Amino acid sequence: MNRLALALCFLSLTALGQPPSEGEAASEDSVESTCPEGFNTDEGDLSDSTVLGAMQVEVDGRGLAPTGLELHGLQRLTDPQVRKLVGAPPADTSRPLTATEVQPLLHRLARTGLFARVEPRVRVSEQGPAVLDVTLEENPTVTSVVVEGLQDLQPQELWGSLFETSSRSDPDYDDDDDVTTLRIRTRDGSLKVVSPCPPPHPPRPWLARREGGAFRPGIMLGGLDAALDRVLKTLRENDGYLLATVSATLSPEGQLTLTVDEGQLESVEVRGVDEAMATRVQEALGLRPGDVFLRSDARRAMKRMESRLPFLRAVDSEDLDEERTGVRIVEERGTDGTRTYRTQEESRRKSRRRERVDFEVGWARMFNIESDVASDGLTLEGKRLIVHVRPRPPDLDVDLLPVHTQVTGFAPGLKASLRIFDSRDRVHTTLEGAFFIPLRLGGQRIPGDPEGTRRQRHVNLLGGAKVQLPSLGIEELGAQVHDFIDTLDRWRLGDFDSYFYSFLINRPDRDYFRREGFTAFATWRWAKSWLAGVEVRGDTLGSLQSFTPPLSLFRSDDPPFPNAPVNEGRFRSAVVRLEYSSAAERGTRVGSLFRTPETALFERHDNWKREPLLRGFVTLEVGEGPGAGGMDTRFWKLVGDVAMDLPMKWDTGLSLRLRAATGHDLPLQKQEALGGWSALRGFGFKEFRGGDSSVLASAEYRWDCLGVFADLGSVHAASAWSDAKLSLGTSLHLGDAVRFEAAWRIDERARLAPEARLLFNRTF
């Protein structure tokens, strides 16, 4: 009982001694008046006593009201138990019921969840009073439960759905918190505590339930058919077993045998393409008859299909659930008292289709953001999966290029790619191009060289075309022409990171040069994870100078970030490469408009499967161009870069990287250097440069969002290797790509303050 109410009652009784009149007492002592407002009108209940009038009975025009209540049909429960639960007067009470009391009592009986049927009848004798005769049919009593048929799930995963609990089953429920009514007399302000309302839920010991890890027998609250319906909805809607069915048998003794079929596919049918292509779609899906069918498996299968067969796309549907047939639980009763329950499919809802335009504009590729939305295109007919596909229309991708460097200032532009698919998978064509325009902002210039300033503000252009020939294993066969400002430092720092820190603090951590010429290339992919390629390059290179003053948000008063010179003139070279990526999928894009011998053609994939990943490449470039003395010189350069991810558990794992490069008679722009982000973090940008060889090793261990890393590297220059340089650091991960890193150099120039960056791209 509420302690505050007792205190108020005590104060009122001691302060106000005037008793109420006999008429007032009689009008205030009814059961209905003791219950708080809303007790009889549960949310969503249409049988609201404020709408539905009191029940009335007329015989020969004479109004009669039931003055007594009799309960029939009880088996497990007793008459006094039910009367106390709903607040009905005892059977032997001398006070007759009023018409306004009868209706709330019937409402409470129906809402207890204990009865499958409540049938009220008014019995009228010739001379005696009218009596309300209520026939009750209790919900089944369950004495034991056996669950059969599960393959993937465990029986305990279904208990919460099978046994509906009430608030009284909450372990925090306190019987002392039963509702108590405090009556206030408006005439004299007196207070009176009256009898509590009947409990809103049946006592827990009456109910079938799971308690203390064991089953407790009792009445099935809400009925067994409703409980099985909850189990079925949990399997299909929450757990994703879209073909699951439930059946059950309840013996007369209360033994419940629950059989769960998680749902196996009978067949997979592909519509929208010819028979030969349908066979390839089925192979790409990887769904086999007899497999347990899960929504998550279906969506991954469609994503895999679109990755391996990018020239096809799923036909849109509103959602997998929208394409499902409705289901309900049907009860049948045997003559011996046995009850059986089964799942019955209802009529299919009509599916709706809508068209989609494949057009994307944004920063997704710049930030390595990939859509995680699964494709539609799946419907079910019974236990048969129907896959709806169609040829993919031309796909246009347009991305912004927010270029900002020390030699261009702010140079916005666009990059576009148009892929034209062949529905018969013979020849797929890609047209791609890009441009960016250095703007004249902040008075930037090259001191004393107006002609050089104008030259560095020229529009930068790239354009190319390539074809894919799947039947021959040719992933790329094409060429491009270009006249733009390029860099060989993309392996060190991602494009957006370099542009961002160039604008923010005048630290792009890249060297640039002018490159004008062409590239022809061919790439052969003989297996899912392997590719080999060759490139022929012919370029004229020119040195660039940093603009003054720097166009940056901070450190604009500092000297311009230095840009290293290159050997100028005409260069010709050939590049051969070999690459491997265990995460690569058939049909994923290969190559880039901004291709260099120092970076891979395979895109870096996020490890969403949390499986060990190995990726790496080797390139060998042999060429000829102006050397240190200005005369044409032959050179060669070999680069190898290998990285491995070893997940320990979710968001915890070890990443390793080893990069090595060597060469002979290298021009200035191709000489090796270490220092800076992703290339010996914590040290200055290219602090150790001018080498013909280098070795860099990195290791990082990550615990959820926190990580620690170490870099170790050395450069070979002037016929000697430098001392091995070590850096240590820590990282805060804000996703698979975005992270904050702080690094300290470990040598005689070490200091307490670290070098720090917020990075948006991963380069290895």
From TrEMBL:
<feature type="signal peptide">
    <location>
        <begin position="1"/>
        <end position="17"/>
    </location>
</feature>
<protein>
    <submittedName>
        <fullName>Uncharacterized protein</fullName>
    </submittedName>
</protein>
<keyword id="KW-0732">Signal</keyword>
<feature type="region of interest" description="Disordered">
    <location>
        <begin position="18"/>
        <end position="47"/>
    </location>
</feature>
